[in-house]
């Protein structure tokens, strides 16, 4: 389990599936997390359970909780490139009452610190769609920089939008956030 200042990141448990199921089938959550409503959503509970509990090759998913251990979303990484020591991450705050309150930023700082110091990654990347300005701002607070734009790569609610590609290097992150406040308990 990883502990940040406001968040806890732990392995997904079976009791988490009901909330994850609701969030992955919520139009507003999916609109802002991926811009892909409803094309990659509308999963049944068994599909969500398989996705989160059984995992897949090189995809690591975790539950995201408040400091009071209330489940509010998920975070994870994929696309591991061993020679380049790079990885892609994602975060979804499914509980809308926690949007805009710094939980995502705290989780990203905690998770990035873990990936840079424990997994020894050199680079973390992510992408979002151009209208997701709240997420872009949060990513920039963590230290991510816009590295590119794929023109009209996302189709969201009947319109094309650019995909924004962002990246963060280990030295940039450590310069900004250091390794302080990093706590690991048990297994992740």
Automatic annotation (TrEMBL):
Coiled-coil segments: none
GO cellular component: ribosome
Domain of life: Bacteria
Keyword terms, alphabetized: Ribonucleoprotein, Ribosomal protein, Transferase
UniProt entry tagged with the keyword Glycosyltransferase: no
Any one GO molecular-function label of the UniProt entry: acyltransferase activity, transferring groups other than amino-acyl groups
Key word Transferase present: yes
Domain N-acetyltransferase, first and last residues per copy: 7-171
InterPro entries: Acyl_CoA_acyltransferase (IPR016181), GNAT_dom (IPR000182)
Name by which UniProt lists this protein: Acetyltransferase, ribosomal protein N-acetylase
Organism: Desulfosporosinus orientis (strain ATCC 19365 / DSM 765 / NCIMB 8382 / VKM B-1628 / Singapore I) (Desulfotomaculum orientis)
């Amino acid at each position: 389990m990883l502990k940040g200042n406001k968040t806890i990141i732990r392995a997904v448990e079976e009791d988490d599936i009901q909330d994850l199921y609701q969030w992955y089938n919520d139009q507003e959550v999916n609109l802002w997390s991926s811009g892909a409503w409803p094309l990659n959503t509308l999963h049944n509970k068994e599909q969500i359970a398989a996705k989160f509990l059984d995992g897949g090759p090189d995809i690591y998913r975790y539950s995201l909780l408040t400091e009071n251990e209330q489940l509010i979303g998920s975070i994870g990484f994929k696309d591991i490139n061993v020679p380049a020591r790079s990885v892609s991450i994602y975060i979804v705050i499914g509980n809308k009452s926690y949007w805009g309150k710094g939980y995502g930023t705290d989780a990203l700082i905690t998770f990035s610190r873990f990936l840079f110091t424990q997994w020894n990654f050199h680079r973390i990347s992510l992408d979002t769609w151009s209208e997701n300005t709240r997420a872009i701002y949060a990513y920039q607070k963590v230290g991510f920089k816009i590295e590119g734009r794929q023109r009209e790569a996302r189709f969201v609610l009947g319109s094309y939008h650019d995909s924004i590609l962002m990246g963060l290097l280990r030295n940039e992150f450590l310069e900004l956030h250091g390794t302080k406040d990093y706590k690991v308990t048990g297994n992740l």
